[in-house]
Request: fold
Amino acid sequence: MRQPTVEDVARIAQVSRQTVSNVLNSPAIVKLATRTRVQAAIAELGYRPNLSARRLRQQKSATLGIRLDPMMNGISGAVLDRFLHALTEQADARGLRILLFTAATPEEEIEQIRRLREAAEVDAFVLTATFHEDPRTEWLIANRIPFVTFGRPWGIDDMTDPQHLWVDVDGRQGVYDATISLLDQGARRVGWLGWPRPSGTGDDRRSGWEDAMRERLGLGEAELRALCTESHDGVPQATAAVVAALVTGRSAALAGNVAKTGASAAVAEAGEGPDDFGLDALVCASDTLALGALIATSSAGLRDLPIIGFDDTPVAAAVGLSSVMQPLDEVAAGALELLLGPTGNTVGVPNLAPNEAHRLIAPRLVKRRSNHLPLSEPSPSLTR
Amino acid sequence: MRQPTVEDVARIAQVSRQTVSNVLNSPAIVKLATRTRVQAAIAELGYRPNLSARRLRQQKSATLGIRLDPMMNGISGAVLDRFLHALTEQADARGLRILLFTAATPEEEIEQIRRLREAAEVDAFVLTATFHEDPRTEWLIANRIPFVTFGRPWGIDDMTDPQHLWVDVDGRQGVYDATISLLDQGARRVGWLGWPRPSGTGDDRRSGWEDAMRERLGLGEAELRALCTESHDGVPQATAAVVAALVTGRSAALAGNVAKTGASAAVAEAGEGPDDFGLDALVCASDTLALGALIATSSAGLRDLPIIGFDDTPVAAAVGLSSVMQPLDEVAAGALELLLGPTGNTVGVPNLAPNEAHRLIAPRLVKRRSNHLPLSEPSPSLTR
DNA sequence: CTGTTAGCGCATTCAC
DNA sequence: GTGAATGCGCTAACAG
Reply:
C-alpha cells in the first residue's frame, strides 16, 4: 500500500492540495474550520509529508553532518558518544536529522563535507576536536558553509570572530573548581597531571589549576612547575609519569626519562619511601590520566591521595574517581541554537553579533566519596 | 552560485539531459565517445547528483537508520561506538548513509521507526541489543520493513527464520578459546564471572566456558556451579562479587548477600587467607566485570591471577587485561551484505534462504602480557 | 483565505 | 544509442 500524499488528504478534506500544505507549514493563515477538517483527514490517513520531496522543493536537507572519529581518545571516547546522543535528541526535537560520516584526516573530512554538501544532503556541520591551525574551519568559512564547532578555535587571535560559531566547556573553570575543592579540604600541595604542551584544551585546563593555586597559596612559577607533571593521554603513560614523580619525591617533568628506563623498576624504589611523596592531592587533565595516577598511587600504597579527573567517564564512576563533568546536553543545545538562531528554523550562514556567536559552558564537579579503588559497598546497579 | 544540474552538464556536453543520466546510472549503454565527453563535462562543472531529487524519483532514501542507546552499558559502551564507526564507513562505500535517532524504550523506538519510515527517510534499520521477547523485530516483520539485527533473536525457537536477518559474534566460541588458552597455560580451576541469568548473550558466553571445562577436565554440573559467580554489569558490583568469592574461599553465587552486608568488611577478612582462594584464573562475560575482578584480586594480593575479559575495550587495553575482541568491521560488513544482498544495490525486503540470512562471526582472543595493573614499561603512546 | 499554476532535479518510460 | 516526454511529492508564487 502506497503512503498517502497531500493529494489524498486534500481529496478527503475536500480542499486543494495547497491548503493542506498551508495547514502543515503556516497553520495560522488557514481558517479554523478547514484547518481542523484537514487535520482530521491527516490523522485518518496517517499522512506524513515525504521529506525527500520537501527537501527537493525547499532546497534544504534539514540535516546536520557530524564526523565520527576513527578512534576516539581511549577511555574518553564516551564524551563524543554522549555528545552525539544529546545532539541527536535535540536535533530531532527541532525537526533536524543527524547524518554520520567518517574521515581519517582533516583533509579527508573536508573532502567528505564537500561531497555531502554538493549532493545537497547536509545543510550544516558540527565539528568536534578543534585544534591549533585547524584547516577545516577556514575552509568552511571560505566556502560559506554553515557550521559550529564543539571546541574553541585554539591559536586564532580572534576567538570572537562571528563567522566561526563555537560552543565549548570552560575547562579552566572546571579545574579551578576542582582545585579549590581540594584546597578547601585542607590539601596544600595539589599537583597537576596534564598533557604535553602546547595543547589548547590542556593548557586551558591547567590554567584553572594555576589560578587556584596562585590565588589561594600565592605560589610562584617555580613552585607551580614543581607540582606539575606531563604525560601523553594513556593509562600506562600516566602511570609511568606518576611513578616517576613518586620516585623523585616530587612532581616534575622527568617522566619521560624514567618511562624510558622502565617504570617497574622505579616503583620498586618508590616503595621504600612513599611518605616522602610531596603531594596532598592531584588534579588531572583527563580521566585517563587520573586512572593512571590512581593505579600508580594505589600500588605505591598511597591509597588516600585524592585525585580528580576530567570528563566524568563511566570508568571514573566505576572506580570511584571524582571528575569534572561536561554538560553535553547544554553543549548540544548551544550548538543548535547558534546554528539555527533562537527562532529555530533557518539553517543558513549565520549573521550574529560577535558576543552571540559563542557559548562557554560551565562544567560541574562530580564528587565521589572514595577516590580510590572501590572496595566499599556497591552502588545501585546498572541492571542489564 | 547554484549547483550544476544534469541540464547544465547536458548543455556543456552537447547531449540531452537523459544521456547524462544514463552515463551516471548505466554507463554501459552509452557510446564510449559521448560517455567520455559527458564525464569531462561532469568533471569540469564539478557536478554531483542531487540526492533529494534522486530519492524522490526512486522512492528510496539510500539511508539506514540506527538508534543511539541512551546510556550504553558503561565501559562497554565503546562497542556500539566502534560498530557505528565501522557501519558508517562501510555504508558510505556502498553509497548508503547512516541516520541516527534516539529512543528510551523499545516502544519509543518502534514509534521512531514508524516516523522515519513514513517520511520516507530511511529504507532499512539496524537494530542493536536484541533481547528476549524483543517486540521490535516482530513489529518490523509484520510491517514488512527491512532490517537486520546485531544480536541473535534470543528466546525465539527458530533462530533461522529467514525473515529475521541477523549478525552476531559467537560469544561461546570466544569464551571457549579464552578458557582453553588458560587451561593450556596450566590453569585448572578456571572460574567464570558472568551476568545473572537468564541473559541471551551472557548464557551463550558462559556455555563456552562450560564446554571447555567439561571437555578438558570432565567437570560435572556441581563442580561448574562452584566455579561460577554472577554479578550485574558494574565494576563495584563485580568487585563485590569477587570479594565475596574470595571470602568464602570459593567462587559461588553468594555475591548478592555479601554485597548487601558490605564488601569492604569482607575484603578485610579475605586478607587473612588469600592463598586459599580456589581459583587459578578467571574468565568474565565483559570487561566491566573483568575490571571489577581485577580490582578485587589485586587488592587482595592476588596480583598474578590471570583474568580475561570480553569486548576488548580501551579500558582493557589500558590496564593490560586480556580480552575477547569482537570483529566489528566484519559485523558491519555482514549486516550490510544481508540487507543489500551480495549484488549490493537493492534495499528491499529480503528473500534469502534460511542459511544465508545470518552470520555468526568468530571473535578473536587478544592476549596481553600483564593481566594486572600496568606497572611495567609504558606501551607506545597514543599521542595527542 | 483558498485554489491554480509551475517547477525543484532526477530517472523511467517510450519513441526515434 | 540517443532524445523527448512524464511525474515522484511537495511548496512558492501568484490569481481569485
